[in-house]
Amino acid sequence: MIDTVVLDDVTKTFGRHRALSGLTFTTGPGVTGLLGPNGAGKTTLIRLLATVLAADSGSVHLLGRDSVRDRLEIRRRLGYLPQDPGFQRGFTVFEFVDYVAILKEMVNRRARHDEVRRVIGEVGLTDVSGKRIRTLSGGMRRRVGIAQALLGEPELVLLDEPTAGLDPEQRLRFRDLISRIGENRTVLLSTHQTEDVAALCERIVVLRNGASVFSGTPEELRGLAHGQVWVSGERAGMLSWRTAEGMFRNIGSSPPDADLVSPTIEDGYLLLLGDVPSEVPA
Amino acid sequence: MTAVGIRVVPPLALNETARLLRHPLTVLGLLLWILRVAEDGWAGPRPGFTALTAEMIIFWGVPAFFAANLVASAARRAEETLSAAPCDRSRRTGALCLAALGPFALSCTAQALMAGLYLITGNELERFPSLAELGMGPLNVLGAGLLGVAVARWLPWPGASVLVMLALIVGTKLLFDQQGKYLLALYVDLAVWGPAPHLDAAGFLPGDMGLHALYLLSLCLGAGALAMLKDTPRRELWLGIGAVIVLCVMITGIGQLT
Fold first, then answer.
1. 3-state secondary structure of B72
2. What is the pTM assigned to this prediction?
3. Interface test with chain B among A76, A97, A102, by most B beta carbons within 10 Å
4. Which domains does chain A have, with CATH numbers?
5. pLDDT tens for each residue of B175-216
6. Do residues B119 and B256 touch, judged by C-beta distance below 8 A?
């Protein structure tokens, strides 16, 4: 695997707050999920990879280039959906995506318009391409943001909370889209949705307090909870919730007579970030 | 700046020009000016002269300022998305400055059509305005557009453009109150009003109108340089250009009065 994203000991502070603290990880083509609680540094990391922010120290190499020295070259090859994209609300969908396409140096009008129509079609907004963005629902606006990120078939796609505000059908469509993009490109997906990560990602990086606390496959993350998820008639464990069957699903060390069940990625993630570090395998 | 980077500016400028020309305030400015000229343009020798030379400054210039400001500010909400694109903010500002040429070209065309209409209809005027006098309106429309962009870049807060416009109005009023310095103001009615009902002029303001047009042009370029200065990676270059423009403003500004 070619490492298209390489971070080495990256630090970023905002005033007294250290958003990234000696972060090191590498990833390559395919879909990589970034998980972590609020304030873990996911958005700072995505912004840094989008070359919108610069690291205070450490090095960031994207697509084989230095993110500071070769910023322009990298920008030509990346697509970026921010957490809160914001739009020129008076623009139509087509106008906005076309505007971004110009900024992405697509100067040939006919080819640009073909590309704009293509990405709008990819996200299923062809029917509303002439509508003003301010008249669209939150989910549709999200899809406009995804469309602009796909312009020019970028080699590196950065998506910060792309499924926020999407309804279930849109999320499934989105998964289909991202999995297709990830077949031959590098996609970094920051999300709180562990279902999306389970469905899409070949690799997962979990951040906490600006540092990577896990980097591996979904199976490896799930494996962290192996033997620690069980069902019983009473509430117990580190985390516990009532299921539709009236039983309690508990995460944590299980009593001898408990019915152990197969863990999910979410279980592994919760254990990783929970208050029982001694129970997490090294 | 790479060759591709420079090639982005023309299509971006065309895109911004289209938005600026379609902006409701630009259309409103044009309509207000047409209504004003229709009312005053054939009312007498003095109102006709004023309509042809001065009324575009207020009735089209002021809406043009706000239109350019709003168009330049529109991307503020999308700044995070746009900031990761290869085309940086300085080139976007450059494209917006070039887009101000759109309303300028439209106002030149409108002014030329109006002047032609005056000639065809044989409208009675104190005298037919010179090219420099005819250019006052369109130059103000150009300056309004460029200043609107500069204000959007330097004062990106709600209400800032209104405060700037109020400051311009107060400044113009102060210059009006000082004898002999009228031409330094942005709004200048060259024909001195005679006795009521003000249909004839009691003469014209003294001054060199050619230099006044150059003075307005220098102010336009100054507003453009000010806009460019905000985000440019070549700050020294634009500071140098700005210094030359300030010198031009001073020379033409003083020169026009004598």
1. helix
2. 0.87
3. A102
4. 1-77+154-215 (3.40.50.300), 85-153 (no CATH), 221-273 (no CATH)
5. 888 878 888 988 888 888 888 888 888 888 888 999 999 999
6. no
